[in-house]
Specification:
8 strands, 6-stranded antiparallel beta sheet, Thiol Ester Dehydrase, Chain A, about 140 residues
Length: about 140
C-alpha cells in the first residue's frame, strides 16, 4: 500500500486539488517528506505584475506563493493527506527583501516545528536569477 503522504500525492495536492494553486499555476519542483522540505515554482504571468513600469510581480503574488508553499510543506507533517483540509493559516509574516526579476519565482519551504496543533514553516523565495527576494514565516493550526 502506498504511503498516504507520498511525493506523488503531494504533487497532486499542490498542482491539481487546490483550486487557488491551479489558478496561480503553482508547480511542485521537489519534495522531501522525511525532511519536511518542499520547493515550488511559479511562472510569472502578465496578470501578476504589480508595477508595470518596472515589470515586477505584485507583493500579493509573492505572499500567495509563500502561503501556498508553506501550507503544502505543513501537510508533510500529517499522517494522511486526507487531513490536509484541517490545516489553516493562523499567522503569516512576509519580509520583502528586493524586487523580483525574471519570469519565475521559486519558493523553498521547511517545516521548523510540527506540534500536535500548530505547525511552523519558513519559506525563502528566489527569483529567476536566484536572488533572495522574500522570506516568509507561517504558523498553521491543525484541527486533528
Amino acid at each position: 500500500m502506498p504511503d498516504p503522504v507520498s511525493p506523488d500525492a503531494i504533487r497532486t495536492m499542490v498542482e491539481q486539488l487546490v483550486p487557488f494553486n491551479r489558478f496561480l499555476g503553482l508547480e511542485l519542483e521537489s519534495v522531501d517528506v522525511e525532511a519536511g522540505r518542499l520547493v515550488t515554482r511559479l511562472a510569472l504571468r502578465p496578470e501578476f505584475v504589480g508595477n508595470a513600469l518596472r515589470d515586477m510581480p505584485h507583493g500579493g503574488v509573492v505572499s500567495a506563493l509563500i502561503d501556498a508553499t508553506a501550507g503544502a510543506a505543513a501537510a508533510l507533517s500529517l499522517d494522511d493527506l486526507a487531513l490536509a483540509d484541517r490545516v489553516a493559516t493562523i499567522d503569516m509574516r512576509v519580509d520583502y527583501l528586493r524586487a523580483a526579476r525574471g519570469g519565475e519565482l521559486r519558493a523553498s519551504a521547511q517545516v521548523m516545528r510540527s506540534g500536535r496543533t500548530v505547525i511552523v514553516v519558513r519559506t525563502d523565495v528566489t527569483d529567476a536569477s536566484g536572488a533572495l527576494v522574500a522570506l516568509g514565516s507561517n504558523a498553521f493550526h491543525v484541527g486533528r
